[in-house]
Every structure is written in structure tokens, then in C-alpha cells.
Amino acid sequence: MTKVAALVAAAGVALAAYFWTGRPDPVVPTPTPTTTFVPTHGTVPYRGMAIQVASGYKPAETFGPLLEEIADLGANTVLLSVAGFMEHARSQAIYVDARKVPAPNDFQRLIAQAHQLGLKVIVMPIVLLKNPQGSEWRGVIEPPDWDDWWRQYNEFILYFADIAREGKADALIVGSELVSTEKYTAKWRKLVAAVRPRFWGGELGYSANWDHYRPVQFWDDLDFIGMTSYYKLADRENPTVEEIVQRWQPIRKDILAWQRRIGKPLLLTEVGWCSQEGAAMAPWNYYQNQNGTPAALEEQRRLYEAFIRVWDDTPELMGVIWWEWRDSNGGPGDYGYTPKNKPAEQVLRRWLAAGKEAASSQPAATPK
Q1: Could you report the per-residue pLDDT of 318-340, keeping only the tens digit for each?
Q2: Where do the domains of the chain lie, and which CATH numbers do they carry?
Q3: Per-residue pLDDT tens for 166-202?
Q4: Burial 176-215 (b: 16+ CB within 10 A, else e)
Q5: N or C: which end of the chain has fewer CB within 10 A?
Q6: Are 254 and 158 within 8 A, CB to CB?
């Protein structure tokens, strides 16, 4: 990404003021209490794809075609990921780059476009590091003043809660992979309590890192469990589908045993692998082997197939969001996460088509 100063441009300053100053709270109805989740067999309610909404310039023209492509895939959901920034892991401020985020009305129109295409919408604000030092990422942030950071983070999430409400989004994720913040349970509970009356009518969740969902102690305040899925699934490049399935089985068993104790539906918020040889060994590592090869495309395809074999028709599963769909052609020369124009896309299309057919023959209510 192009490096930019923290909201020094006039447009950025104006946007920051709009975000963080005291706009009057909307008059809201009393939120409906969440109900007990009862697993049911059948199609996964949320079957979708993620888009990183990373531009404020003509978002309808930029992201509208991607929404159409996702609907054409057979998906019924899109996750819109939108970022606020910290300079690095030990910075204090959370800020929004006006060039990277659609204005509120534009964002709401984007949600409306998705709904017109028959897509449910999940909004997921995330924190990204603009200039990480070494291997820093959002999971290790340590600002100098935690109380001030939490004040800013609350305002950041409430801003997007208002957008999600006005756009009638179906769900809002109040945080993603903020591992070092998860020890502040009371702060998270306070945030969720503040968000709920601002985002009535939709479901609230949090997206935990794949290796850190157990320590989270505020799941009972939310409507669903979110987690990523970047598990190590092989010890070598180009594993077979059967080998990947074998590695998934105990992971799935462990997750679902824990999920049943929590009693909330599970949304896998980021399911995906780069088309790189060795992707199964370190799915989180985009930089490990940046070469587009036939073997890399086949490894990605096998990872998609194995996941579907293991997780399809899991009654505890609220949804699967595949990571990610981009404004690019994808294809054999692309070594990123997108399955676009790669063999994995055909695997995905078959799964989505099967889910669509199952949903039309036996509609399943969205679990709470």
C-alpha cells in the first residue's frame, strides 16, 4: 500500500472529526435478547466470500462488479472487511485513511447493492498496521495507554455499527484477531453492550485467531463465534486430499467439542489458502513461496476439496466465508488467496451450487 500520513489531508481530517466527535446517538428500540442455539442439519446458512473494501473512491463502481461475481459464484453472503490503521503495534492512535474507506452513504449503498443481488452482508471492521516493525501484526498490539486505545476502538466500532444498521447489514463482527486485547474481558463486554443497541436487528460476533479462540471469555455476550482457519495441515508440499482430510479430522473434533460447551453457532470467518506450493504447511504465510505454478494451483484446489469433505453438513456451523475475492483476474499467474479463475474456483462453485439447491428444497432458518 502507498504510505500516507495519518489523516493530514483536509478530507482525512474532516473524516476523522466525523468519526470521533460526539454525534448524537440514534433513538433505538430495546434489543432483542439472543436465543439458545440449537444445531440443525442442512445447508450452511452463510455461504460466502470476503472482499477487502480498501478504497473510498467510487466504491459502487469499484466493488459492485465483485458483488455481482460473488453472486454468480452461487454464494449467498458477502463479508465486507474494512480497515482502521495503527502505525505499528506500539502506537497509540487508531485512524481511518479517507482514501481507503467509503463514506457512510456510499458504504450503505454498497450493502444495498449486495442485498439486491440476494447476498447477506457481514461487516467486519479490522485494525491493520501501516508500518509494522519486524513481524508485528494486529494480534500483538501494545499501545502506551490502553484506556485511551479502548476509547478510540469503541468509537471506531460504533461508527461502523451505525453504517451497518442504516444499511441493514445482517451481521457485524466487532473485532478480528486482536489477541493481545482479549485479556480485557470487561472492556469487550462493555463494547458489545454499547454496540448492541446501535445495531439492532442483526447478529454480533467476534473473529478469533485460529489458535487463540479458547482464551476469549466474552463469547456469551455475542450471538456467534467467529474464527479463522489457518491451521497447519501438512508437513510437506503438495499433500494429497486424503492426507489433508486426516489432518483436519482431529482439529474439527476439538473445535466442535469446545463449541458445544459454549453453545453458540460457529462462523468460519476466513477460510482460504494461497495458490503456493507449501500453502498447507503455513496457510497464514502469504510470503512463503510466491510463485504461481501448476503444482501450487493443485495444492490450493486440494485444500478446498479437503475442507469441504470435512466440514460440509456440520450442524454447528453457522457459515463459511472464503478468503478472498479481489478486483483482479486471478488465474494461473496469481499466487494469492483468491480462487478466481483457478481450479479451486470450480470446487467452490460446485459446493455453493449444492448448498443453494439444498436451501431451495429445504430452507433452514439462520441460527441465533
Answers
A1: 999 999 999 999 999 999 999 99
A2: 42-359 (3.20.20.80)
A3: 999 999 999 999 999 999 999 999 999 999 999 988 9
A4: bbbbebbebeebbeebbebbbbbbeebbbbbbbbbebbee
A5: N
A6: no
Which pLDDT belongs to residue 12? 43
**Strands 203-208 and 224-228, how do they pair?**
parallel
| Contact predicate 87/129, CB 8 Å | yes
Q: Are 67 and 25 in contact (CB under 8 A)?
A: no
Residue 255 has pLDDT above 90, yes or no: yes
Over its C-alpha atoms, the chain yields an Rg (Å, rounded) of: 20
d(CA 281, CA 285): 9
> CB-side exposure of 204: number of CA atoms within 13 Å?
30
Whole-number Å distance between alpha carbons of 161 and 31: 14
Cell numbers for 330, please give them.
486471478
pLDDT at 42: 58
